[in-house]
Amino acid sequence: MAIGETTQKAIANPTKEFFVTMITRDITLEDCILDLIDNSVDGAWRGAGSRPVGFSEEADLSRYSISINVSPKSFRILDNCGGMTLNDAVNHAFSFGRRSTEEYDDYSIGVYGIGMKRAVFKLGTDIKIRSTAVDEGKRLAFAVPINVARWLANDAPPWDFDIAEDEALAEDGVEITVTTLNGGSVRSFESPSFVQNLRRTIARDYTLHLNRGLKILLNDEPIAGALIELRQSDEFVPMRDEYEDEIDGERVLVELIAGMAALPPDNSDPDEQDDGDKRFGWYVACNGRIVLAADKTTLSGWGTDGWPLWHRQYSGFLGIIVFTAAHATALPLTTTKRSVETSSEVYRRARPRMREVTRQWIDYTNARKQALEEAKQREAGAASISIYAVNRKTPVKLPLLTPRQTERVGNIAYAVPISRLRTLGKALGSINMPYREIGTKSFDYTYENLVGGE
């Protein structure tokens, strides 16, 4: 064979096993289940008229429900959210990615057209997907059975799945069952902590939909959306702002709400018994789905561009920013939909607005340390209101405090066995006394006995 002459070709065809391994490798089982919920939520939103999922729209999703059942033997998700049509199934629902000519559902959370396949392959190997939907005026039902082992056995194209006639579901919707689970799925579904964490994640990430009446059940128990409230009075007013942005010709609506969700701590020292800090920080939602929750990291700006690192002093602050776009490709979310893409221009342009309201809370809590009693009196008059009740186009308002001269103080930090701490707490009045209070009372007791009252 002469130099430069081509007589053979190196085979570069992909294999099914490679695709299955790669698309399931870097995603958690929990995220896969959320992908399936996303598909159902998108269906419900289509049925409700596909509109922005912000704070002001009064969409009613109460007629839609999603039921999830997990056990070491099987997985099942069933919804009544309209189902997929036969045309959807034939042309794109089972493709590995979206074609460039394919249309997107307005205001959906799905982007890459791979979530359902990735989820079921992660879950197990014996899968059945059923759908009942009205298609061109007729109610049609079909099923797509997938035996992964048999499907993987032949890499020759086409990589299609068989579609079979099926009995209609009770309501228009989709049912996915996996009856032969992978080992990781079995171990996870055997764990009560996994199921409990899944419940908490669903409650948090779909709060904006659950608050509009959508019903989600896990193992037959309803999941309640988180109640998000901020405190308001004449002196404490949450901010609410909205504006339009654009990226690659796609319109993006951005809405922000932020303010005091709870009273700041009297002392900023760490307290092992205080876990209330977990719900504070910034929340980011994309088309109604919470993709970043209670964030206190550089993702939401803390510790960057003049922001301080999060400190317990800032507990009580809560901010929510919602990005809404007809095409999900314009949203600043990652492929796992569990974080934000910080390089997104839409997100980068939103950060200064987030920083502005955060800065005011930081300044308030700094001043509060020098006027604690005055601050507590003013804070006592602030009542909790729903985020949906915050007035539009309202800047944040926090009171100006009058610092008072106080004697310099020092912090005392030392570690002792918890058993001794609790024993001392019991002697001082309560075995459940906070560690900080035990320290203060024991210092006062020692001071009074060795120095005397002054």
Describe this structure in words.
The protein is of the alpha+beta class and 454 residues long. The chain folds into three domains: 199 residues, Heat Shock Protein 90 (2-Layer Sandwich); 161 residues, Ribosomal Protein S5, domain 2; 33 residues, no CATH class. Helices cover 30% and strands 22% of the residues. The chain contains twelve helices and 15 strands. The chain has an eight-stranded mixed beta sheet. A five-stranded mixed beta sheet has the order 10-11-14-12-13. It has a two-stranded antiparallel sheet with strand order 9-15. A hairpin with a 2-residue loop joins strand 10 and strand 11. Helix 1 crosses helix 4, helix 2 packs across helix 4 and helix 11 packs across helix 12. The longest helix has 24 residues. It is elongated.
